[in-house]
Specification:
single chain; about 325 residues; alpha+beta; Thiol Ester Dehydrase, Chain A; 3 helices; about 15% helix
Length: about 325
């Protein structure tokens, strides 16, 4: 797809922060959108050259950050739901629930990150297609399955991402949450614990800033099996762009990513910064509570030892209850 064929769309500014459910302008990654059909939408996005969380390796990056691409598509879900499927935006009256994710990079290395392009903004074209729609008996839509194809502006496809989300009235959501918290012995005045210190160094989970580490108390359980506690810091300006009373799906995705990189690096005896998360498939079973200890377990399945390729299965639990499960593809960067 050539950008010139869609001259009405622009990379000149960002969309409204309210439309993509953000509080801070610097967290908005989408720049424009246009409905192509009842179930098709074209969107433009720009990856940040420097960011407090996404695309953290701003100088020596060699590939796309899959989690940043997932965030682009997550924001696109809100745009499509509000502008094409009748979900009211005013009043913030609806709660969206991330149900499933299936994301994969289609290339190991991109010319976008060659030395002669260093520092230039990465502009992306995002093609959204609705693959399935869930409706109430009243014919009101309450859930969608999106398929996203992400391309560079010269038409090179870089990733495929599927996301399933549902939504409901916020008043109903509050009722459900009250019941959940009673069942989990979470009193209304139960404080959210402060994020503990971590023994991990940023490089052990392919990070630069220690503030972006979301694990602590990491230990070897068995051959190829590791366990850690999630380190949830509600002061983090990206992971908690807006106040919430539960653990966001994007935080859980990062927990799984760091668990997979740490475990893979130990199994193959390589540096985590040399590894690439190229696939992430996940299911979110229930709500993660900020007040409760959160455990993550990673099991490594070696797919190709010579090529340093593996699949890491990560499970996140609270009170012996599975919150979410992940299948993370990791490989050595070329």
């Amino acid at each position: 797809m050539a950008v010139q064929a869609n001259a009405k769309l622009s990379f000149e500014g960002t969309l409204s922060k309210a439309l993509v459910h953000k509080v801070s302008i610097d967290q908005v990654l989408l720049t424009d959108y246009q409905a192509q059909s009842d179930k098709g939408t074209l969107l433009y996005a720009q990856l940040p050259r420097s960011h407090g969380f996404y695309c953290e390796h701003i100088v020596d990056a060699r590939r796309f950050d899959l989690v940043a691409l997932i965030e682009i598509c997550r924001q696109a879900c809100f745009v499509v739901a509000h502008t094409q499927f009748g979900v009211p935006l005013e009043g913030n009256g609806y709660q969206f629930l991330f149900q499933e994710l299936d994301a994969s990079l289609l290339m190991e290395r991109s010319a976008m990150f060659n030395q002669n392009r260093g520092g230039q903004p990465v502009q992306l074209v995002v093609k959204s297609t609705i693959e399935r729609e869930w409706k109430k008996r009243s014919d009101v839509t309450y859930g969608l399955l999106w398929f996203y194809a992400l391309e560079t502006t010269d038409g090179v496809e870089i990733a495929h991402i599927r996301i399933r989300q549902t939504w409901l009235e916020r008043s109903k959501w509050r009722e459900i949450r009250q019941i959940m918290k009673r069942e989990r012995d979470i009193a209304p005045d139960m404080a959210i614990p402060a994020a503990p210190r971590t023994e991990l160094k940023p490089a052990e989970v392919a990070r630069i800033s220690p503030h972006n580490i979301v694990l602590h108390s990491l230990r070897l359980v068995d051959v190829g099996c590791y366990e850690a506690m999630a380190r949830i810091d509600t002061r983090h300006p990206v992971l908690f762009d807006r106040a919430t009373e539960h653990i966001y799906a994007m935080i859980q995705i990062e927990v799984s990513r760091q668990m997979a990189l740490y475990a893979m690096a130990r199994v193959f005896d390589v540096d985590a910064v040399e590894l690439d998360v190229w696939k992430c498939k996940s299911t979110f079973a229930t709500v993660g509570e900020l007040q409760l200890p959160t455990r993550a377990t990673a099991n490594v399945r070696v797919d190709d030892r010579d090529r340093l390729s593996a699949t890491v299965f990560v499970t996140i639990t609270q009170q012996d209850r599975t919150i979410s499960s992940f299948e993370v593809g990791v490989r050595c960067m070329t």
